[in-house]
Design brief:
globular; alpha+beta; about 150 residues; 6-stranded antiparallel β-sheet; 6 helices
Length: about 150
């Protein structure tokens, strides 16, 4: 999944940080089954995204709910994916956890690569088995980045 990381870094001045080498190795090892994990590593290695905040209005969020999210650290991403629900359910479907809801819903945010773009989903935590209704398309990664601080 090609992504122009240099363009992203120049275009979006986010207040977060980049991943350390140790964090990059951990992400690469734990998510090695995803064919786009290298592109994801490039993103968190080159863009100050970790710990950055993102807000989308209800009209900008395709699900109509609105977003108030903080980007997880790689350690938190691994923990959410392999130790907690809904991560345990959706990670095998190609989702990487990226964000924590700051509104209080407890519904985490995930990134999933399609053939042409990365999409951000809110994944409802009230399910114990995969169901399409548990995922809500929020926006593309590009749209989310436009609303970051």
């Amino acid at each position: 999944m090609p992504y122009n990381i240099n363009f992203i870094q120049r275009r979006f001045d986010l207040s977060g940080r980049v991943a350390t080498q140790e964090e990059l190795e951990s992400i690469g090892e734990r998510f090695k089954f995803l064919d786009w994990v290298r592109s994801f590593q490039d993103l968190i290695k080159n863009v100050n995204i970790i710990g950055a905040s993102f807000e989308l209005s209800e009209s900008a969020d395709q699900s109509g709910v609105g977003v108030d999210m903080e980007w997880l650290t790689p350690g938190e991403q691994i923990d959410e994916a392999f130790n907690f629900y809904p991560g345990l359910i959706v990670v095998e479907k190609g989702f990487i956890p990226i964000g924590s809801c700051m509104k209080g819903s407890g519904d985490p945010y995930f990134l999933r690569a399609t053939e042409y773009q990365w999409q951000v989903y809110r994944v409802l935590h009230d399910f114990i088995a995969f169901n399409e209704r548990m995922t809500e398309l929020v926006c593309t990664l590009d749209v989310l980045l436009e609303h970051g601080t």
